[in-house]
Amino acid sequence: MGDEPLPRAERMLREVFGRRLAVDFPLAPLTSFRLGGPAALYVEAESGDDLVAVARAVRASGLPFVVIGKGSNVLVSDGGFPGVVLRLGKSFRWAARDGDRLSAGGAMPLPALAGVALSHSLAGLEFGVAIPASLGGSVRMNAGAHGRSLDEVVERVELFDLDAESTHEVPAGRAGFRYRDSDLPERGVVVGATVRLQSGDPVEIRRLMDEAREWRRATQPLAEPNCGSVFTNPPGDHAARLIEAVGGKELSVGAARVSVKHANFIVAGPGATAADVYRLMSELRSRVHDRFGVELEPEVRVIGEIG
Ligand SMILES: Cc1cc2nc3c(=O)[nH]c(=O)nc-3n(C[C@H](O)[C@H](O)[C@H](O)COP(=O)(O)OP(=O)(O)OC[C@H]3O[C@@H](n4cnc5c(N)ncnc54)[C@H](O)[C@@H]3O)c2cc1C
């Protein structure tokens, strides 16, 4: 039994993480949807050595691996994830200024980094002030809002490569950034990034940030569990418009329903399951496809097996 993948990875991780390794660890509280089952193995990395230990355990066991950030764009399967889930711990939450550049750790919340930019009168990150993401997750997803996105400011990414067991620098031009996605590999962990901003007027920076927060309060169902936009916008159109046009705002499956405030948001009511959300997504996709011939592409990342 000792050579089965799970016990093998558990033994290897236990040697390095000790009691910091969690078995059958509930993931729902780590996600904005508050849904889904446990991770077979869960660790928070606090150092490069921790990351190397995770890489070795994953490679030796062959278990699936996923890194999560603030969990604001993930749908975790009700059955959980049968492998190793990694999150960057507190020591990856830092920021430092060098002229008009800010470097920060992958666990730094994007709104907090926007706050650091404001405190140094640096403009260019106002759009990120209300995106509830970590820097690592938002770089991987090329998060954006108000017509701006991270690729416009990211200069370089520090990537820990699970297969090489080491960290290297990826210049932004080689990260394959595109609309709400990048080519950064799934077996890579964004441990830090540097953004290049410009000096600006703090009053104007604060005004833009206040506006961004206010716009969200007015247009998004922030009081209910959700994952932000469920689908990416198809070229030249808006997923919310298409969903609304097919009667999506009246739809629900189980306790998951389309938000009346924003048709591209699904909110999870009490007792909702990830399967409810997934079935509702499928229904919306097929209605939009039948009526408009448009394939809605999920923006939310599924963790584990659903459907
Ligand atoms: C209320 C609400 C509003 C939102 N508004 C916006 C918006 O305006 N614009 C927008 O773009 N998004 C928005 N989102 C979605 C979400 O915040 C973004 O997709 C964000 O980039 C996800 O970051 P995260 O740290 O939460 O990553 P997670 O949700 O934890 O993970 C998302 C993906 O990134 C990967 N990942 C996470 N951390 C790392 C890391 N350190 N290294 C490598 N890969 C990693 C995961 O494996 C997964 O594939 C919103 C979400 C909510 C709940």
What does this structure look like?
The protein has 307 residues and is α+β, with helices and mostly antiparallel strands. It folds into 3 domains: 84 residues, Uridine Diphospho-n-acetylenolpyruvylglucosamine Reductase, domain 2 (2-Layer Sandwich); 126 residues, Uridine Diphospho-n-acetylenolpyruvylglucosamine Reductase, domain 3; 83 residues, UDP-N-acetylenolpyruvoylglucosamine reductase, C-terminal domain (Uridine Diphospho-n-acetylenolpyruvylglucosamine Reductase, domain 1, Alpha-Beta Complex). It has 7 helices and 18 strands. A hairpin with a 4-residue loop joins strand 11 and strand 12. Helix 1 packs antiparallel against helix 2. It binds flavin-adenine dinucleotide. Flavin-adenine dinucleotide binds next to strand 3, helix 4, strand 9 and strand 13.
